[in-house]
Each structure stands twice: as C-alpha cells, then as structure tokens.
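Predict the assembly for these two chains.
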Amino acid sequence: MRRRFIAVLLGSVLLSAITSASSADPLAQRASGWGLPTLMASLQQVRAASASFIERKYMKMLSAPLQSSGKLVYVRPDKLQKDTVAPRPQRLIVEGDRLIIEQEGERRRSLSLQDYPQIWAFVESIRATLAGDLNALSRFYNVSLKGGPERWTLELIPKDAKTRELVTAIRISGEGSTIRGVVTQESDGDRTDLTILAETR
Amino acid sequence: MTRGRSVAYLLWFAVLTVSIAIVSRTPFSTDMSAFLPRSPSAAQQVLVDQLREGIASRLILVAIEGAPEEVLARLSQRTARELRGEGAFGFVANGEEASLAKDRRVLWRYRYLLSPGVTPEAFSATELHRALERDVQLLSSPLGVVAKRALPADPTREMLRLIGEFAGSARPQMRDGVWFSRSGKRALLMAQTSAAGFDIDGQEKALAAIRAAFHQAREAVPETAAARIIVTGPPVFAVGTRARMQSDAEHFSAIATILVAAILLLAYRSPRMLALGLLPVATGALSGIAAVSLAFGFVHGITLGFGVTLIGEGVDYAIYLFTQTSPGSSPEATLPRIWPTLLLGMLTSVFGFSAMLLSSFTGFEQLGLFTIIGLVAALATTRWVLPPLVPRNFSVQSATAFAAPLIVLSGEHRWLRFVIPGAIALAATTIALHRGSYWESELSSMSPVPPAEKALDRALRREMGAPDVRYLLVIEAKDRDEALVASEQVARRLSPLIESGLLTGFDSPDRFLPSEETQRARRTAIPDNQKLSSNLEAALKGTPFRSGTFARFLADAEASRSGMLLKRSSLDGTSLALRLDSLLVPDPSGWIALLPLRGVENPQRLAIEIADLGMPRLLFLDLKRESDRLLSTFLSEALTLSVTGSIAILALLTIAFRDPRRIARVVEPLVGAVVCTAALLLLIQGQLSIFNLFGLLLVVAIGSNYSLFFEREGRDGKAGRPEERVVASLALANLCTVIGFGILGFSAIPVLHGIGATVAIGAFLSLVFGAMLSSCGGISAPGAG
C-alpha cells in the first residue's frame, strides 16, 4: 500500500514535469504537425497519474443528478483505480483483464472484462486514452480529434453495434498530456460527466 | 444303431433350429449393470447409472486450433450455429451471447421463484429502501451502464444474483465473444448429445455431425487451411473403443481363423473335414447363447466375448476324434476308446465353470451357463453327429509330424520328472517375491482408451473448467419434489461447510428448480400489489429515484405472485434444463438428487461432517473409490469362483479315479502351467488383470484335456508310452489354440490381449508339462508307468 502510494507520488511529480516541459514549447509542436499520433505519443510519456474527480450522472430515472467524488489513479501500463469517497465509499480497480469492485456492505466482486464486452469498451475509453494506446482505442471506437495541444477533445464512437445500443459517444477532453473530462452520452439520453480536477500530490 | 443315429440327428436338427430361432431374437446388451452384484449398494448403482446414461456420458468437448484468434472465434461461432440446428444435440455451448439468450429469458421470467433472495422481509419498506440505495451505487459503477436497463423491473436485483450463482466457479475465458483456452490458442465448445451414453450408434452420428459442421465452417471462413478440430469426452471414447474392438476382433480373428484353418487343412487334407471339424463348435456356441437367452432374457456382450473364446476347447474335440482315428479304422471304432477321456475332460471344464453359476454377478452366471451348455453340446455333436459324416478310410496322414517333439519329451528321461516341480518352485518364488499388489485394482486399467487420449481429455476439461467430478452427495427420494425438498435441506447444511473450508462449492438441482414448497413460500413472500406499491413509495423517500420509475417491478412481482409455478418443462431448451437433468435423475425406486462437490481437499473429514448431518437417505460418494471397489469385488468373486471351481474339479477326479497318484498326474501339469503362466505374466506386466484370471481358467479347461489324455496313455499305451497318434492329436489341438489365442495377444485391447496371451502361454505349458509326465509317472509315483 505504502509502496503504491510512493509510486503514485513519484509518477505525479514526473507527470507535472513532463506536462510543463511539453507545454513549454507549443510552437515547436505546431510546426511538426500536431495530431492523433503526437497526442498519443505525449500521453505515453505519463508513467503514472493521480487526480481527484467529480462525476455527475444525469439519468431519466433520477430526479436529480447523481454526484460523486473521489480520486482517480492510473499506473502504466494497464492499471486504473477509481476511489469514490463521497457520497459512499466505493473502489474500482481495473488491471489487465480484471475489474474489481469493492463497496460498503457488499462482497468484493471480480470479473473478467472479456466476459462483458460493453463494460470493457467503456473501461478502455479512459484507460487506453491514458495509456496513449491508439490501437486499443481503435479496437472499440472510431476515434476523431479536435482542437490543439493545449485544449483538445477526442470523440469516440463505439464500433460494436451492441455497445452502440448503450453508448452513443464518449468525449474526452484534455490539456497537453492531461485529461480534464470525460462525457459519456448514452443512447437513452442519459449522460455522465466526469470532471478531473488538478492533480493531487 | 441306425435308429439311434436318426434320433441323434433329429435331436441335433431340433436343437440347432430352436437355438437359431432363439438367438435371432435375443437382445444383446452392453449394459454395465450385468456386471454389478445383484444387490448393488446404492453407491454402485448410482455409479453405473452415471456411466451408462448420466449427462457426463453424453458430453463432448470440442477444441478448434491452428488459426489466429479471430479466425478461431468465427469457426467456433459457425460450427456451433450449424450444430444447434441438428437434432443430435440437446445443447451446444461456446460462450456466445446467443446461446445464453434462452436461459436469460427463463431466469428473468421466473426470477422471483428462483431467487433465494425472495423473502417476506425483502419487500418491506426498509429492505426496499436499502435495495434502492444499493442500486444508486450500482448506477455509479461501470456496471451501471449495463445494469441500468433491468433496474426499473428488478430493483432488488434478483436477476444479477441468479446469473452470479449459475455462472458457477470455473468457466473458460472469453475472447472475441466465445470460449477460449487460457493460452488463447484453442476455441472451446461443448456439446451434449441427445442420445444416451450407451447408445453408441447415436454417439457416432453425433461425432460425425460435429466434424461435418466444422468442415462446413472451415469452407465458409477464409484462411483456415491449418485449422483443425479436436474432440474428446466419453462419447468419443465409447465410439473409439467400439471401433477398435471391432477392428481388432475382426482382424485378429480373421488372421487366427486363416492360420488355424490352414493348419487343419494341412493336417486333414480335406476341406470337408475342416468344415466338419467346426460343426461341434458352431453347435456349442449357438446352443450356449440360446440357453443364456432363455435363462436371462438377454445376452451380455462381454459374456459373448469371453464365452466364444472358451469354445476354443470345443474345437479340440473334433481334432481328437479325427486325428486319433487310425488309417483303415473309422471314427466309430475310435470313439469307444477315447470317449471316457473326452467325457471326463468335458466334465472337468463343466465342473470348473459351474462355480460361476453361484455368482452374484449376472455376467458371471451367464458366462458359466454359456460355457457349460456350449461344451456339452459340442461334445454331444462330436459323439453322435460327427462320426457318420466322416468319409470312409479317412485318416490324418501327417499326424506323426506333429507328434515328434513331444514324443521326445515323453521318453524315458529321468531328469524330466524334476522339471515341473522345479518350475513350480521357481514360479512360486517369483510370485512370492513380487512387490506390490498382484492385481490391477484400478478400473481405469481395464479401459481400452489409449493414455494419450485420456491426457488430452484431462487437459481440455481443465481448460473448460469442467473437471471430472469425484465426490458426490446422493439423495434418494420417492418423487421428484421430495428429492428437491431434500436437496434444499442438504444445500442449507452444506453452505456452512464451505465457510469452514471443507469444500469450495457444490451444485444442487434445487437451484434450477426449487421445490414446490419453496416456490410457494417465495410467492407468498411477495405482498399484494397495493401493499407492495405503498412499501415502495415509502422506500423511495430519500433516494434520488423518480417515483413511477419502478412500475414494471410492481407489475412483474404481481405476475409472479399470481402466476404459475416453475416446472421442469418451463426450462425446456435451455442449458438450465440440461444441468438440472444431470443433477436430478429418475431411478427405479423414485428420484435421485446428485450434488457434485467442488474443491474437496479432505474427504475423510467431509464424510464425517456429512454423516453428522444425520440425514438418513443421504450418501457421500467417492466415485473413484467406488469404481475401484466395484472392480475389487468383481475380482475377489472371480478368485473365489476359481478356487471353488478347482475344488469341484478335484472332487470330480477323485470320484473318477479313486487313486491319488492318478489324480496327481492330471493335476500336476495343470498347476505347473497355471503357476508358471501367472509368474511370467507378473514379470512381464507387473500386475495381473481380471482378464488374465479368465485366461487361467481357460488354461485349466483346455489343459485338463491334455493331461487326461497323457494320463490315460501312460496307463494304456504300449509299454507305458503314449501312442503317437494320440500325441499328434494333442499337438495339433495345442497348435491351433496357441496360434488362435496368441494372435489375440497382439491386440492393444486389454480384454483380447489379456485372455489371448494367457491362454497361449498356459496351453503350451500344459501340453509340455503333460508330455513330460506321461511316461515317467510323475514325482509322486516314480516308476509307476
């Protein structure tokens, strides 16, 4: 536990250093032709990242948006952890093919992403973006990029028809090699906004 | 004389006609239960039933390999689709979503009757509120995207609970939407044949359908040139074994027949005599089968297999008669001379095998009856039917050629008398010094499935997450519902044992079909519509859900409350039905519920815990131990019968000879042959099998004829030496036996190999030992010739 904390800490320090380094010279990037490959390459530089988040779910069956907040941790190559603190503690860990859900008053659940292709697609939208893994993204989505290195938006449209029945599009916005937000538009009109706040140290 | 003869012929024709009529209508069975003790323990009965027709006996595991992952996945989908359209399969699974759709529909419809979560408290305002709070959590997890759809109709999440339970512990990995091995190199499928395990024709058709479906799929999908299919499982073994048995039996018996016929033709120089020589055997086999059919109503395949080899003795009768007839004489003239010996030889075998009639195994009884009737009929044919058919002036010209080596042995060599006792002593020492068990005690050693195929099966089973079940709980009940009630009781008591680590899990039929009592209890646990909606209204307070969201929940709960109970037929066409049918099976006295146990590390302790539950009709079953125990019961009874048979033979000889020296001269070569053969087999194989034991019985049956003839010649022959012609007949008979059975010894099938090798070695030793004793009078009476 302690070791992981140190790794995250180190990663964050590294991340901020890289972030500042790349934003230090935007002109040079523009000149070399900024695009999906360069964005992915810069994301690939991130060894680990940690940030707090606020998530709001707008659903027809809910009279008010469901708001939760907590911390999001990414460790290269394939570990993603989402610790929700409020309103109720919940921990999600994705590592490799496993998704583990721990929440208060319930048994720890562990499932294989391969068994749930739709959830896998959803997980990969964030994880593969953080990893800068265009191949993994393209496996599930048609990817398009808007904006520039300082502010960009990735639009992901699910390729699989089954997944499209659930999710119409996922929009990931970021600055440099940092993700700032993820908006998931579901096909029934529901929507999830995930806002990523400043990195925690 | 002529009148007597026509009576004999009439009788023979009558017996033959009736026998053929009976045999043509005889059902032949391969039912294992014929080789169960007549009053089997419940455990043994379950074991055999499972082997015969249990669901496991119909399960085919399929792997497709030799192509990239995506290609394998497409092949798997196409093959499965093809097979689902076939009538030969009750169920085909490859992990595809489509194959589970039916299951999901049934689970969804009956979720309030199936889920153990349905209790009166579950629908109170407090519990509903708690459930709704958990729903909020679920919505905020990544599962929310998927779970959201079902939530308005199932806020208490019974469906999720059911899917979680039914998914079981181990499942193959999913890749590209289908099951894969862990390495990702094999796509995995599973098919359950509609035909029962013992219906080998049905299984064979099903296997052919699988291959055809795969080839069709391969043509439809590009880049599949190197792709290949692997099939395994009990149906594959059964079909393969039958094919190997048939081909071995056909090939080896064809070779043996040709060789034996060639020798006899060489000896007789007459095709007619060759045909006549087979008459006693044919008559014996037919009447033997007919007798068994009359007595039991059916003939077991194994009886027939063992029995026909016993007829080997029947062939000898004609050889003795023909060969011992001197030139210029006639068989009629020969008969009075050899008849007492032939009769005594036949009676020796009959006494030996009559012990089998006392067996508690139907299979042994059949074997005994078959042999007794068969030998009596064969000898009677030789005595009364054959002689008039032999052409005048027939004699076996080359008889002396066969006799020469044996004549040498039966000469006056003093040292020869020590050979048999010496050989017996040596063999007995070998046997005494043998390390470990004398008998193969594992049922698997009798299995004709090649080890490589068994290993492949184990590997695929592991990857499929469908390991062989070894430990089972068995519950007997009067009817289906009682079995379900009992299984619910046992399941409730078993759960704490999982927590204490005695097992990791179990299956039980009531999960798929709860007892009516339980279903009714769940139904009454659901409040009426008005009450439920007021509870829900109260529960919604303090949650973010809009009121009205759960209208479908109210409607579905009401539908379950006032709807039909779940029946076995409601599950038709789903994989749930299949799993239920493998766990809940009818038997003659009612129904049996089977609860396979997983992850049992300490069976002794678990057995004690289960006995402590104090449930009278609950049985803890270790399938491996039970099947091995079945074999050892089988083996020990076969041994007892052999000993009883030997005592009967001794008694017969005592009555016939009333002279210990004469008895010793007959028995000594036989004991020598049996002991030496057993020692040799132990040296070669390490252990003896039950087939070797049958072979030794046959050695006694065939060898006793040799030693009886040698013994008689020792007394009546010229100057105490056996007559050349008699020795020749024995040599010829022996040559046929050694070749016939020796060829069978080359088969890889345990039955054929075991019996073949034993008889070939044993019969040869009997002859040699018999010849040695024929003139020197045996150790007990030196100089008595």
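The radius of gyration of chain B is 35 Å. Chain B has a mean pLDDT of 84.
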